[in-house]
Amino acid sequence: MTAHFLGDTAVLTGRTLRHVTRSLDTVITTAVTPIAIMLLFVYVFGGAIRTGTASYVDYMLPGILLITIASGISYTAFRLFTDMQSGIFERFQSMPIARSGVLWAHVLTSLAANAVSVAAVIGVALLMGFRSGAGVGAWLAVTGILVLFTLALTWIAVIPGLAAKSVDGAGAFSYPLVFLPFISSAFVPTGTMPGPVRAFARHQPVTSIVDTIRALLAERPVGGGLWTALAWCAGILVVAYVFAGIVYRRRIS
């Protein structure tokens, strides 16, 4: 059964990856917006922002990476919506393939496409002066957090991709996710914010994830923030996965 699921998922993932490689503009677009934000904040606003770090690009990069992922998962919803409208799901149901493999193919494609976008953003950040003395272990930890965050947001994207009534509705859900890092510690310390905004910023998931990645890259102690970040990612992932499964079963029943 497991081999059947893995084989079907691999074949279906190859199909969705081919769609992505035929429209690389989606990957490029995903990376362009975060890069533009990074350039704007570093070269226009950076001189006026005090973060207590030597390099502002070092400070803001973790938040930019999360924005990159939040931008990228909107295309997952778009691809799912397109498949739903084309009737391909109904054709898959008539074939002897694992039903969940169809969704996992889109999720794994999202991981691959977002990995390319994140790598492009990091490359530009290096050209802008980003430096980190973090070792292999720290970079692996950062990669793990980003993968978990991507999975969590991708399963959120699956829900509107299956349930939306229009292509605009399928992609619009990502706007709040892209905006969320701006009300966190991603660009400025939360202590500089007014009371209610500061309280929200300190207790929303992006802040703990950004602070953990920043500490890992700066070779500082992570403390309990790591577990808070992992708990947020895992919690969102589990809830989104369950709801996506419910929506999927209703749509194909």
Descriptive account of the structure:
The protein has helices at 2-22, 25-45, 56-86, 88-93, 99-127, 136-163, 167-172, 174-179, 195-203, 205-217, 225-252. The chain is mainly α and 253 residues long. α3 (56-86) packs across α10 (205-217) and α10 crosses α11.
Summarize the structure.
By secondary structure, the chain is mainly alpha-helical. The chain has one domain.
The radius of gyration over CA amounts to 19 Å
User: What class would the helix/strand composition place it in?
Assistant: mainly alpha
Query: Strand portion, in percent?
Result: under 5%
Beta strand count: 0
Order of helices and strands: HHHHHHHHHHH
Mean pLDDT: 84
- The number of distinct helices, counting runs of at least 4 residues, comes to 11
Roughly how much helix do the residues carry, as a percent range?
Answer: over 70%
Largest sheet: none
State the end-to-end distance.
22 Å
Taking pLDDT < 50 over at least 5 consecutive residues as the criterion, the unreliable ranges are: none
Query: What count of domains describes the coordinates?
Result: 1
Which shape, going by the Cα principal axes?
elongated
Q: Tags for this entry?
A:
single chain, 253 residues, mainly alpha, 11 helices, 78% helix, elongated, Transport permease protein, ABC-type transporter activity
Write the layout of secondary structure elements.
Elements: H1 2-22, H2 25-45, H3 56-86, H4 88-93, H5 99-127, H6 136-163, H7 167-172, H8 174-179, H9 195-203, H10 205-217, H11 225-252
